[in-house]
Amino acid sequence: MNRRTVFKGVGIGIGVICAVGAANFYQALLELRRRKPLIIGGATVVKRLLDARLIETFLKYYPEADLLIEGGYSHGGLIALERGSIDLAMMSNHLVLEDKLNFLEYLIGIETVGIIVNDNSVIKNISTIDARRVFQSEITNWKELGGPDAPIEVYSRPDGETAKTSVEQVLLDGRFVHEHARVLHSNRAMAEQVSSNPLAIGFISQQGYLTTKEPTLKIRPLSIDGIEMDQRSIGLGLYPLVRQLFLVIRDDASDISKKFIAFVLSDEGQTLLADSGALRVR
Fold this sequence. Notes:
This protein has about 280 residues and is an alpha/beta fold. Helix content is about 45%, strand content about 25%. It has eleven helices and eleven strands. It has helices spanning about 5-35, 45-50, 55-60, 75-85, 130-135, 160-170, 185-195, 205-210, 230-235, 255-265, 265-275, and strands spanning about 35-45, 65-70, 90, 105-120, 125, 155, 180-185, 200-205, 220, 225, 240-250. The strands form two sheets. Strands 1, 2, 3, 4, 6, 7, 8, 9 and 11 form a nine-stranded mixed β-sheet that branches. Strands 5-10 form a two-stranded parallel sheet. α6 links the parallel β6 and β7 (about 180-185). The chain starts with a helix and ends in a 6-residue tail after the last helix. Mean pLDDT is about 85; it is low at about 25-30.
């Protein structure tokens, strides 16, 4: 084989490699262009509900979505949305009137928390003010609530857990459950401890209450200000320990943002949210 033949073969080989490389690069470029950014930010309570299984399922249907989600606060999410830093804001409260001119909000779920006691407790109802004082350690004896002369044993959940966050934001007006409350790390643990202790008081999400409700667990949610925790009072907006959860987009939202909201509000999306602890809105 002469040198000219060798060089010709090498040239053809290099040409093929270059062609394949160019094709791969072009394909990667097309894939990159097909990717659709979806940046979500705002209330951590909403993030936890979306994170559980919903986002994973959404990406199976829409693999082109380049999704990033970060928790924080409702107001911070709204500011980021207004500045165009994110595509979709998570909120745990309604938009104020002036914001509704620029944004569209969608109610995606409801988080409801019950204050629970042992089923043998003589206490059936608690006022919002007294409940606040109990979890702030200002009322420490059941006698002050019409019960026995015995200390109230308060059970709580870890910092950042959604039911605790709701209690602190809605019931305690942004203050914290007192530091001496015993921290329990699951709905099951909360139900079991309150069931075994007639002097206990704690809190649990409605979903957690329903999933742990069984004959062996003697727990009961207190009515608050005379209003029971049931579907009717929640649906009518009467039960006080409730947070409505929203997704918010701009008027000029991207197509993938709208698809995400549509999925969250679909029957499958609502089921996934309910499995994560929220009440369905559809």
